[in-house]
Amino acid sequence: LFYILDLTSDGKNWVNKSTCFCIMHTIDFHMTVPAVTFNLRKVELTPLEQRKLTFDSHTMVTELESRGFAKCQAELIVSALVTLTTANMDIVYKDMVTKAHQEIAVQQLMAHLDSIRKDMVILEKTEFANLRSENMKMKRELEQLKSRLEEESQKVRAETKLDINLENSRISDMFTEQEKKLIEATTEFHQKKADLEHDNMEISKKMDFQVASLKTLLESLKLETIRYLAATVFSCLAIALGVYRMWR
Fold first, then answer.
1. Helix, strand or coil for residue 218?
2. How far is Cα 94 from Cα 80, in angstroms, rounded to an integer?
3. Is 71 part of any domain?
4. Could you give the 3-state DSSP secondary structure of residue 243?
5. Domain assignment of residue 21, yes or no
6. CA torsion sign, 233 to 239 to 243 to 244?
7. What is the pLDDT of residues 7-56, one digit of tens each?
8. pTM to 2 decimals?
9. Is 131 part of any domain?
10. Is the dihedral of CA 123, 128, 131, 136 positive or negative?
11. Closest CA to 3 of 103, 55, 80
């Protein structure tokens, strides 16, 4: 509710002393709706005739008239205040509860909790029996699975052991064969080495013999050359001596 009033400096007379404007707007009061509870009974907390206002409306109208408001304006303002106060009191009373109503709600809640507790006990027993049966079933399945795993493990262990033995024998045979090949290669190498040394000795002997033969031949050729040279020199001297004698 809004009022637009233009007052003079003294606060008692209207501007132009002729007009008075009152603008009223309807106000929507939003009431809180109580939540629905379990077996809740609606109880009227306080009768309407016992809900008293907190101020005197007649005194308020008189006070407003003494302040310069017209009687219709004062009554309208007081009526709006009464409406607002009543709405606020309704809201407050709806959020309040009496002791009797509280005890009834507590008893209903305890009864509901007892029924829930009984249901929980029954459900717990049923669930416990179901869990026990499921546990026994899972235990049997686990034992079967354990025995199956042990059988598979023994089978895999035996196969692995057999494979390891076969691999060891194969590696031993391979090692023996490689050792034989190595011995044969070593023997062949030593034999070839001995043959090469023998060939080298034969070649060395032949080379020594050839060198000695060449030295002997060279010495004989040297002697022959010296002899031929000596014969040639003596022949030349004899011819020269003969020519010399002939000229004399």
1. helix
2. 21
3. yes
4. helix
5. no
6. positive
7. 333 333 333 333 333 333 333 333 333 433 444 444 444 554 455 556 67
8. 0.28
9. no
10. negative
11. 80
